[in-house]
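Justification of computing resources. Each target in the renewal requires a structure prediction run like the one illustrated here; the chain below, 79 residues long, is used simply to show the kind of job we budget for.
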Amino acid sequence: MLTQHKETWFDEDIEKSFLQGHEKGLEKGLEKGLEEGREKGWEEALMSVARNMLKCGKPVNEIVEVTGLRLEAIQSLVH
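Resulting structure tokens:
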């Protein structure tokens, strides 16, 4: 009977550890996904600003300076 009690406790402990690990993994995944989403949204906003600046006739070097985008990214909007 003692052996059965130990096995039940051990199984419950494994399940609890698994669930805790799974929960931590989900939290980390969610945090990473949110961060990536924010970065992507910020980059899209900067690209929109760059497009508007190009429409206003601003020089590419000024757009690079204002937005912090790479020259290649802004040049891709021109073509």
